[in-house]
Amino acid sequence: MRTYSLNRTPIVFLNKMHIARVSTLAIAFVAFCSMTIIAAMANAKSAPESFADLAEKLLPSVVNISTTQTVEAGKGPEMPQLPPGSPFEDFFKEFFDKNGQNQRSRRATSLGSGFIISEDGYVVTNNHVIQGADEITVILSDDTRLKAILIGRDSKTDLAVLKVKSDVPLKAVKFGNSDKSRVGDWIVAIGNPFGLGGTVTAGIISARGRDINSGPYDDFLQTDASINRGNSGGPMFNIDGEVIGVNTAIYSPSGGSVGIGFAIPSTTVAPVIRQLQKNGQVKRGWLGVHIQQVTDEIAESLGLKKSEGALVASVIEDGPAAKSKIKAGDVILEFNGKPVREMRMLPKIVADTEVEKAVDVIVWRSGKQVTLKVKVGELEEDKEVASKATLKKLDKKDQKRIDALGITVSSITDSLREQFKLAEKSKGIVITKVDEGGSAAEKGIRVGDLIVEISQEKVSKPRDVTRKVKEAKKQERKSVLLLLEGQSGLRFVAIRIEKP
What we know:
The protein is an alpha+beta fold. The chain is built from 11 helices and 29 strands.
């Protein structure tokens, strides 16, 4: 065999023996590729010619939910003062008697959707469909009306479980694994839009992991299937007929479908429903930390290769994290074997963890990974963080300017403690001035904020700041990480080091 080069591209000439060997290899390779392609085509799920068979199978498991609520009469508008004997006096009196002042309590009704998950009558729907209802009626696909009782509801995920009694076994559907669903997969949505009854629409999964700020555990599937008012609580099916979501919300400037609907994924729904069926309420895991997003600047200042995980801004006293030696400044990278790729993943992972279970938590601390053992606590509804009062006028005594950060700082004095309402146990350095347009101002740092740590080291005097900035420059860091205490509590901020 000889090899020549033409424009740097190898040209290979083969003799007969080489040709025979290559031919055999080529045939084998083509055969292998053909088998691989055939197998892939067999496993691929092509677009169905019709959804009729699937709809016929699933419609009996989808129900309409009608709720009735007593609305107390409010005080109607007052009748205008008219001159005695006015010809309009009788007219206005009759009008206002009918439309407000003598109005009685009335019964308001609303319609939603749901689906049957067991032959003995358990039904899943949205919490907002049945919230405040005095009576709940489940209407089957054959128009059979069954009175329902509320087994349990969960406002944080907007889910509820009902129970009906039927003389015959009901046709139930089962949950699928929404984690296996991909963007572009076909889905079918069935519900009761505008009270019309069972209605089938089809589309694809448009996106995953959507956060629409509806609750602390947002992780919605987005679809372009038509979902309208009344579809709430209805199921989203994959083409295998498994429930992979509960249709809950839409984005719509007009109130109608514009092709952007959201469903709670079945991996969130299923464990919540199991707890509601068993206990009537949901117990969630609690870690006892306040967290924030790891930005590129924060990652660089901590020596992380990429911005991932959840940065611990503060640790709640006597909480599970505090008892397990998790510290402010730690970046939680993994919890109970599940990677934390971004901040908002952590609350859901912790909440889904069994209460009192001891789990491994991997954190990034001082430039390396550390594994800690944490016993998960139970989240209570009343756990919240208090904020500080509004800041008062500055005290300009004992200040030192830090040009590299665009701030002026001071040690804590009695005067500053009084002006900024600092607690007696507060420690650190007070920011008394923020340069307009500087690095600190860009990050939302304000006068009155307290610097507790710099580069994960506690500071108590202005010279500590200067020293830490110099160290960062020597290490060729582009920013320094500050732990600040302000009106919103503790938070980490990476500030770019300004050049002189």
